Amino acid sequence: MINLLRSIPVLLLLAACAMPDNPTQSGNGGTEIQLETGRNCWANRCFSYDSARQMVSLPGKNPARVPGAVNTQKGFVTETEFAAMFNAAAMSYANGVGRR
């Protein structure tokens, strides 16, 4: 029990660490964020991206389609497009909840 209590601060410290941001490049619209299949993070916002299905998801939520205004063909998106993808994933129904 005492060992468990000693490990709690270490676990909390590890959980508080921010995820590293995806690689970026400079483009005509400013900073462009590289999309990768799997976990993508920028500005402390993370989501999972499936390039084959054009879907984004957050843990505990159903996958959502990438918004139509977002062009993912070149593998990079602007900060605004990244935020739109995150918002689409966040607005998705939670697993086990939804229309019946």
Defining key terms:
three-stranded antiparallel beta sheet; about 30% strand; alpha+beta; about 100 residues
Total helical segments: 2
Query: Strand content of the residues, in percent?
Result: 25-35%
- Cα-atom Rg, whole angstroms? 17 Å
Which percent bin holds the helix content? 25-40%
Order of helices and strands: HEEEEEEEH
Q: What topology emerges from the helices and strands here?
A:
Blueprint: H1 2-16, E1 24-27, E2 30-34, E3 38-42, E4 45-50, E5 55-57, E6 64-65, E7 76-78, H2 79-90
Antiparallel strand pairs: 1-2, 2-7, 3-4, 4-5, 5-6
Characterise the protein shown here.
The protein has one domain. Helix content is 27%, strand content 28%. The protein has 2 helices and 7 strands; from the N terminus they run αβββββββα. Strands 3-4-5-6 form a 4-stranded antiparallel beta sheet, with helices on one face. It has a 3-stranded antiparallel beta sheet with strand order 1-2-7. Strand 1 (24-27) and strand 2 form a beta hairpin. It is globular.
Provide a concise account of the structure shown.
The protein has 100 residues and is α+β, with helices and mostly antiparallel strands.
